[in-house]
Amino acid sequence: MRRNQRPHRLRGRAFSLAQRLGRSLMLPIAVLPIAAIFVRFGQSDMLGQNGLGASVTALVPVARVLAAAGNAVMENIPLLFAVGVAIGFARKADGTTALAAIIGYFTFAGVERSLSPLILGKPGPLTNEQVTCLRNASKYISIDYEAKDSLGLCGIHGQELITYGVFGGIVVGLLTAYLWARFYKTKLPAALAFFSGRRFVPILATTACLLLGVAMAVIYPLFKAIFTDGLGALMTESNNSVLAAGIFGLVQRLLLPFGLHHIANTVPYFTLGTCTSPTGEILHGDFSCFFAGQAGSFRPEGYVPGTYMAGQFPIMMGGLPGAALAMYRCARSGQRKRVGALMASGAIASFLTGITEPIEFAFAYAAVPLYFIHALLVSSSMMICAGLGIRGGYSFSAGGVDYLLNFTRSAQLSTSGATGTLLMLVLAAIYFVIYYLLFTGAIKYFNIATPGRPTKRSERAGAQAYM
């Protein structure tokens, strides 16, 4: 009898962990929509020098301030997650818990940066051809020449950094919560009494996160080999742009909750395929070739720039807002105002800017089956757009702003011209309905604990988690 109960207990603990993780991330997630809007409107093609700032110069410093403010939040999402998870999982958490998580994450991130040249190798010097290519590429897309290393243009790869993104922040938060629960009452000898109790936890967090950083840095090349070399080979050898787009969409979304999607992005965006710019220079990848407006020579056969970006527009402009509406409608009546505010801001951010984390992180950890459904739907959208010859691209993300700004270029590369680009809006409406119906049905039928909808099982499990 007891043996039969063990799997049930393990499932219950896993369920409890997922629910607590989801609840712990709600506060950090709440600040992301406004940060995303700040970043998007602060870009050079909006209020900056290449947008409205070209006519009203006073808007240029405003754009810089908005972008700086938004990026300060978006670039530190892993840190916010580390603090949120530590406070959410630690019993009797206080300011010391948050401080320990902050110190722990700074230590972890510092170790990753310092070990990057040793683990991943140092970059070689730029060739004359690469310098010329980069200068020419800057004529077609807005880039910071000094920040070229992060773009992967022209075959240039600067110092690659080991980065686990939000996954690293979550691991640090869980480790900090464990250290807090285990050692916050620890008594030290009289000579070291000042460091006893709560003060002891940040010290332990520093040491533990140093060791964690070393361990995760060592295994990082394995992730890189799987998701860059392996994914690149799979996409290229498929010799089918429709299938390759579907594979990329699926893998990219599945990696997002772990903060590793940037590894997959480098393959199609900056590596796969080449094209020739109007000046005769060689460019690499979907991103740079789209903005140069060149079809070039690519594998898989039949590939045209914009294949790996177009399919994201229907999801970000239609699908995820539909999911947000479903989660709002399925919330308990007493929780709807709170959930509605979160989902509305997330839907606006997704539709306008293409920043999807406020919605995706709301269910990625607490409702894993829903996230798998989401990943499959993203893959289907990528394949449909590729199959219909719809091409699209973005300088920021696949939101409404980039859709309008790049409409002409997308129409030029789409098989059916402007009709293909307009079809994105039709697909966005279709995916809005699909997401709403699928999420509503799954949430109610399986009683999934999305925001504002705790199940009795999750409430019992959460209460017993540390008993």
Describe the overall structure.
By secondary structure, the chain is mainly alpha-helical. The protein folds into 2 domains: 23-135 and 165-237, no CATH class; 238-466, no CATH class. Helix content is 67%, strand content 1%. The protein contains 21 helices and 2 strands. It has helices spanning 2-24, 26-30, 32-41, 59-74, 77-89, 95-120, 128-137, 165-183, 200-237, 241-255, 261-270, 285-292, 307-310, 312-330, 336-353, 357-364, 368-387, 400-405, 407-413, 418-445, 456-464, and strands spanning 274-276, 282-284. A two-stranded antiparallel sheet has the order 1-2. Strand 1 (274-276) and strand 2 (282-284) form a beta hairpin. Helix 9 (200-237) packs antiparallel against helix 10 (241-255), helix 10 (241-255) packs antiparallel against helix 11 (261-270) and helix 14 (312-330) runs antiparallel to helix 15 (336-353). The radius of gyration is 23 Å and the shape is globular. The two termini are 22 Å apart. The relative contact order is 0.11. The model is unreliable at 139-151 and 457-467 (pLDDT under 50). It is found in: Cell membrane. Keywords: Cell membrane, Membrane, Phosphotransferase system, Sugar transport, Transmembrane, Transmembrane helix, Transport. It is a multi-pass membrane protein. One of its GO terms (biological process) is phosphoenolpyruvate-dependent sugar phosphotransferase system. The chain crosses the membrane at residues 21-41, 161-180, 200-223, 308-327, 362-390, 411-438.
